[in-house]
Write a structure and sequence with these properties.
single chain; alpha+beta; 9 helices; four-stranded antiparallel β-sheet; about 25% strand
Length: about 550
C-alpha cells in the first residue's frame, strides 16, 4: 500500500505505520513537474496552547468589562487562533517548491501552480503540510505520491489523505487536494535562437547593443587579438574609462549599485581619449562633482555587517569592501549612499553568512567580465535598481526610527523619468510583442544588433514592488516561497540553456552551486538546484544518440 493515496470522505485508511510501508526504488526524474496545490480540509489546530491562553485572557477581560460596564450586553466575536498552514514539495530530499502561508485556517485555499524543473532521483514526491510558527514550523502531515503513478504522463488530480509521522491522519477527514503532471525533458521544446527564455520576469528585448569587457582595466596591448567573422577584429574596450565618460556625460541621473564601491578608486589609469572637466577625479569626488551639477546620484552599497565606523568600534570588516568609509565620505553631500544587507530575507544565521577569516593565501588570479547594455533592456536594469532601492530605503528608515534619530524623507529619491518629455521611456499601457521600436538603438539587420534578456535571483525580502496577489505574481512568473515571492529567472535560464545545448556546455561561474541533496554528507546544506546534474543528463542524452 502506498504511503498516501486518493481519499474520499467515505473511505478509510488502514492504520499502517510509515516504517512498515515497502520503499520503492528511486528513478531519475529528468524533466518538469506541473503541480497545482488547491486546498486542504479538516486540518488539526496546532496552536491549541495559544488559543486556550487567548480564551482565558478573553474570559478575564469579559468579566472585568461586565463589572465596569453592565450596560453593554453585546460582546465581540474574536478570531480563533488556529494553524497557519503551508505546503512544501520535496523530491529526492530536496525542497523544490512551497506555497504561501494561510493564517488561522484549518481549511486553507491556496490555488497555486508550480512549474518545477527536475533532475532528481526519487521514489516519491512528498507534499509536507506544516504549521508556520514564529520559531520554526510544526509538522501536520505528509502526502506521498509514488513517481510510478505519473511517469507515463498521466495527470493526477484528486484528494489525498494527510498522514502524520505515525502513519495516521491527524483528523479523520484531513486531506489535501492537488494535481501533478510530469513531462520528460526529451518531450519539451528546446529554446531556439532569438526566442529568449520564456516564463521569466523580464522578457527578451530587441534592438539593443552590448559592449563586453575583460577586467575593469587592462594595460594597453596586453590582451590577445580576437578575430571575428567577416575578417573583423574585436576591439577591446576599457571598462572603467567608459564608466567615467558615462558619468561625465550624465544629465539626469547616476545610479550605482555594487558589492564593493570605494570612493578613492581612480577610474582612468591609461586614458585613450581626452577627458572632459572632472575626469581626472577619483570616483567619490567625481560623483560629488556631478551631484553639484544637479544630477541625481544614488549609491546602493552592500552592507558588510562585520565592518564598523563609530566612536566605540572601528573595523574594516571581513571582506574589506570599504562600505562604512564610502558612506561616511558622502555623509554631508547631496550624494545619497545607502547600505543594503546582502541577505535581506535569508534564514542563514549571522555565523553562516561570514567568510572564513582564517583562510590565508595569495589572491586568486581570476578575471572579471563586464558589459555595457544599451537599448530597451537597460530599462529592466533600471527597474531592478529602483525595486532594490525602495526596499533598502524602507529598511534604512526603519532602523533610524528604531534609534529615535531624525531623518529626512527619501521616498522621492528616484527620478520619475516617464514624466520627462525628452527622455524616451517604455509605455506603461502598450507592450508590443517585439517591444517599442522607438527605444531601439539598433536595427534587426545591423551587424551590432543584440537581443538582450535580463535574469536575476532575488526575492521580495530584497525588493519592493512585487505584487501582493498570488495570481498577479504568477502572471509575472514569480514563485511563492512561504511568505516570500521569488524571481528565479537565472535558474530558469540555466536549465533552458543546458537542456537546449546541441554541441557543448561551457560554464564559468564563481557561484555555481547545485545538487548538494545528492551528497550524503551535505544533504541539509540548502542548495537544491541541480545544474550539475542537468549538465550530466544533457550530455548523456547526446551521447545516446551519437552526438
Amino acid at each position: 500500500m502506498a504511503c498516501s493515496g486518493r481519499f474520499n470522505r467515505s473511505e478509510k485508511m488502514d492504520d499502517v505505520p510509515l516504517n512498515k510501508i515497502p520503499s520503492l526504488k528511486p528513478v531519475l526524474l529528468h524533466g518538469s513537474l506541473e503541480v497545482w496545490i488547491y486546498e486542504a480540509r479538516e486540518l488539526p489546530n496546532m496552536d491549541m496552547v495559544s488559543e486556550n491562553l487567548r480564551q482565558c485572557v478573553t474570559l478575564l477581560k469579559t468579566c472585568t468589562m461586565r463589572i465596569r460596564r453592565v450596560e453593554r450586553s453585546h460582546h465581540r466575536h474574536h478570531k480563533i487562533i488556529t494553524s497557519d498552514p503551508y505546503v512544501s514539495i520535496q523530491v529526492g530530499g530536496a525542497t523544490v517548491a512551497q506555497t504561501r502561508v494561510i493564517s488561522n485556517s484549518q481549511d486553507p485555499h491556496w490555488n497555486e501552480h508550480f512549474h518545477v524543473d527536475l533532475a532528481h532521483f526519487a521514489s516519491n514526491v512528498e507534499f509536507t503540510v506544516k504549521d508556520n510558527d514564529v520559531f520554526g514550523a510544526d509538522l501536520i502531515g505528509t502526502v506521498k505520491i509514488p513517481v510510478q503513478n505519473f511517469l507515463d504522463g498521466n495527470k493526477i488530480d484528486d484528494w489525498f489523505q494527510v498522514l502524520n509521522s505515525y502513519g495516521k491522519p491527524p483528523k479523520p477527514d484531513s486531506a489535501l487536494r492537488l494535481s501533478i503532471e510530469f513531462r520528460p525533458a526529451e518531450a519539451e521544446a528546446l529554446c531556439k535562437d532569438g526566442g529568449g527564455v520564456p516564463n521569466t520576469y523580464f522578457p527578451l528585448r530587441k534592438g539593443g547593443m552590448v559592449s563586453v569587457y575583460q577586467d575593469a582595466h587592462v594595460g594597453n596591448g596586453l590582451l590577445p587579438e580576437i578575430r571575428l567573422d567577416g575578417g573583423k577584429v574585436f576591439e577591446h574596450g576599457k571598462c572603467w574609462e567608459d564608466i567615467c565618460h558615462a558619468i561625465l556625460e550624465a544629465h539626469h541621473l547616476v545610479y550605482i549599485t555594487g558589492w564593493s564601491i570605494y570612493h578613492k578608486v581612480k577610474l582612468v589609469r591609461e586614458g585613450t581619449r581626452q577627458l572632459p572637466e572632472g575626469g581626472d577625479l577619483n570616483l567619490g569626488d567625481l560623483l560629488k562633482f556631478k551631484s553639484q551639477e544637479g544630477v541625481r546620484v544614488l549609491l546602493l552599497v552592500w552592507d558588510d555587517k562585520t565592518s564598523h565606523q563609530n566612536m566605540l568600534l572601528k573595523t574594516q570588516g571581513v571582506m574589506q569592501t570599504h562600505d562604512e568609509e564610502t558612506k561616511k565620505f558622502f555623509k554631508h553631500s547631496s550624494v545619497q549612499c545607502v547600505l543594503a544587507p546582502r541577505y535581506a530575507s535569508s534564514k542563514l544565521s549571522w555565523f553562516k553568512q561570514q567568510t572564513n577569516a582564517d583562510a590565508h593565501g595569495p589572491r586568486q588570479p581570476w578575471h572579471d567580465l563586464h558589459s555595457k547594455i544599451e537599448g530597451p533592456a537597460a530599462y529592466d536594469i533600471l527597474t531592478n535598481f529602483e525595486q532594490r532601492w525602495r526596499k533598502a530605503i524602507k529598511l534604512h528608515k526603519f532602523g533610524k526610527r528604531f534609534r529615535k534619530a531624525a531623518h529626512r524623507d527619501t521616498d522621492d529619491s528616484l527620478i520619475k523619468i516617464e514624466r520627462i518629455s525628452w527622455i524616451l521611456s517604455p509605455s506603461a499601457t502598450q507592450n508590443p510583442p517585439d517591444g517599442d521600436p522607438k527605444l531601439w538603438v539598433s536595427k534587426e539587420n545591423d551587424q551590432d544588433n543584440w537581443h538582450v534578456q535580463v535574469f536575476r535571483s532575488i526575492d521580495s525580502g530584497s525588493v519592493k514592488g512585487f505584487p501582493k496577489s498570488v495570481q498577479e505574481a504568477q502572471n509575472q512568473n514569480l514563485v511563492c516561497r512561504k511568505n516570500l515571492l521569488v524571481d528565479k529567472s537565472i535558474h530558469t535560464a540555466y536549465v533552458k540553456a543546458i537542456r537546449s545545448a546541441q554541441h557543448f556546455i561551457y560554464i564559468e561561474n564563481q557561484y555555481f552551486l547545485g545538487s548538494s541533496y545528492n551528497w550524503p554528507s551535505y544533504k541539509n546544506a540548502e542548495p537544491d538546484n541541480g545544474d550539475d546534474v542537468w549538465c550530466y543528463c544533457r550530455g548523456s542524452e547526446r551521447c545516446r544518440i551519437g552526438r
